[in-house]
Amino acid sequence: MSTVDLSGRQRIHVVGIGGAGMSAIADVLAAMGHEVSGSDLRTSAPLERLAAAGVAVHVGHDAAYVGPDVDLVAISTAIPADNVEVVAAEAQGITVARRAGVLAAIAGLRSTVAVAGTHGKTTTSSMLALVLIAAGVRPSFIIGGDVNEIGTGSAWDEGDLFVVEADESDGTFLELARHAAVITNVEPDHLEHYGSWSALQEAFVRFASETPGPVVMCADDDGAATLARRVGATTYGTAEDATYRMVGLTSGRDGSSFALVHDGVELGTIVLPVAGAHNARNAAAAAVTGLALGVPFADAAAALARFGGVARRFEHRGEAGGVTFVDDYAHLPTEVAAAVAAAVDGGWGRVVCVFQPHRYSRTAALWQDFAASFRGADVLVVTDIYASGEAPRPGVTGELIARAVGDADPAQVVRYLPRRADVVSFLVDELRPGDLCLTLGAGDLTTLPPVVQDARREGTS
Q1: Within this chain, do residues 134 and 278 fall inside the same structural domain, yes or no?
Q2: Claim to verify: residue 156 and residue 138 sit in the same structural domain
Q3: Is 250 a catalytic residue?
Q4: I need a surface site. Which of 66, 110, 266, 276 has the fewest CB within 10 A?
Q5: CA 274 to the chain's CA centroid
C-alpha cells in the first residue's frame, strides 16, 4: 500500500464504498473536489446518498470500473487483495491505498482532533463536531455513525479543524497526523492484533504522547486514568481528581445532566437529551475538548442540549402495544453494562434485553467478562454469534455468555435462543405493556425491532 497525496484534484475509485467508514471518506473526497466513483456488493442507504451527491456508484465488482484515468483506488479493510478491481488497478500501476492511508492523508490537510478509545468514540466525536459547529468554527469531520441532527457522519467545511474517529483496532490510529486527541477509555480489546494488554496500553501512550496539542482523557476509566497520569493529560469525570469534574450527575429516560467544575469554579450545567451516565461522560469529553480549543462553555452547553443522538447508540426504534424498542451498538462488556444501566434509569416496567455476541474470537476471549454486564435486565435473551467474517470456533457459541450470566446470578431470567425465528416468537409472547425491549450488538440484530413490532401487531389483529 502506498502513501497518499490528496493535494491536487484526482480521479478516485473506492472499493467497498457502502461501508460506514468508506462512504464517509468518499463523501469528503467528493466535497474536497475530487472526482469519486465506487463499488460495493449490494445496494444500501449510503450508496443511494452518495449517488444523490453525484458520486458514480456501482453494485457489484468489475475490473472495468478501474480505467486508465483513475489516479487512486481506495479500499476498505474488508476488500481482499484478489478483488478484481484491486487486481486491475495494480496491473495498470495505479496506486492502491487502504482506508487508514486515505484517512491519514485527509487528516494531514487540516488541524485534526482525533477521538480514540475502546468505546464511546462515535458519540463523543459527534458531540464534539456539534460543539464546534455551534461555536461557528465550521469544522470538517468523519465519524463512524450518522449524527441525527445532520443526517450524515461526514462533512468537509471551510474551517481549519477536522474531527475524526480514530480506530485503534489495527494500530492505524497512530498514523493520523493530529493536533489534539481525546481518549474516552482503554480496555483490553483487539488483542489479536496487539498481542498483549500491555502492548495495547503502550499504543495509547504513543497516541497521546505524540499529540502536540491538548490531550483529554476520562478520569473515571481505570485504563484511561492510568495513562493520563503517565502523559499529564487533562481529565474529565466524576472522580475527585479530575481536571474538569462532573458534579450532580443524574440520568433518566429523558436524558441526563451535570455541572462542570474546574479549579473549584462551576462553569455551568450541561443538560443532555439522551440517557445514560456514559453519554454524560461523552458530553463532558466533548465540552472539555471544546474548551481546550477555545470554544466558550455556553456554546458547548447549547450544542449538547440539542444533541439528538447517533444511529444505533441507544436509538429509539418505535413503540408497539405499549412496548418501547431501543437499539444500541454495544457489544463489549463495559458498553453493554452502560446501555443496560441507561435502560434501568429510564424507569420502564421491565427491561427485556436481547444480545447478539460479536465475533468468535471476541466471544472466546471475553465471554466470562459479560457475567455482570446485564445486571438490572429483567429478562435476557442471548442469540448466536455474529461472525463478522470469522470462521466458527468449536465450542464457542452465545451459550457461553448465557451460562456466565446465569451462573453469576441464578435468579436472572436468561434464555439462549440461537435462531432468530425463536427470538421473535419468544419476544412476541414475553413482551407486555410498559416494557422496554433493548437490542444490543454490532451485527444484524439491529433489524429485529421492526420484525417484532410487526409480529406483535399481526398477533393482535
Answers
A1: yes
A2: yes
A3: no
A4: 266
A5: 16
| CA nearest to 351, candidates 263, 435, 227, 267 | 435
**Would residue 112 show up in a list of annotated catalytic residues for this protein?**
no
* pLDDT of residue 461 exceeding 60: no
Q: Which of 121, 124, 397, 439 is catalytic?
A: 121
Are residues 293 and 421 part of one domain? no
How many CB atoms lie under 10 A from the CB of residue 340? 24
| pLDDT single digits (tens) 18-77 | 887 889 999 999 999 999 999 998 888 888 889 988 899 999 999 999 999 999 999 988
CA angle 151, 61, 87 (to 5 degrees): 120
- CA 425 to each of CA 212, 419, 450, 456, 461: distance values in angstroms, whole numbers, following the listed order: 55, 10, 13, 9, 16
Q: How far apart are the first and last CA of the chain?
A: 58
Task: Classify residue 114: in a domain, yes or no.
Answer: yes
**112, 118, 122, 235: the active-site residue:** 122
- Domain for residue 198, yes or no? yes
Tally Cβ neighbours within 10 Å of residue 460: 9
Residue showing cell 499504543: 203
Residue 48 among the catalytic residues = no
List of residues 6+ apart from 47 with CB closer than 8 A: 17, 18, 23, 40, 57, 59
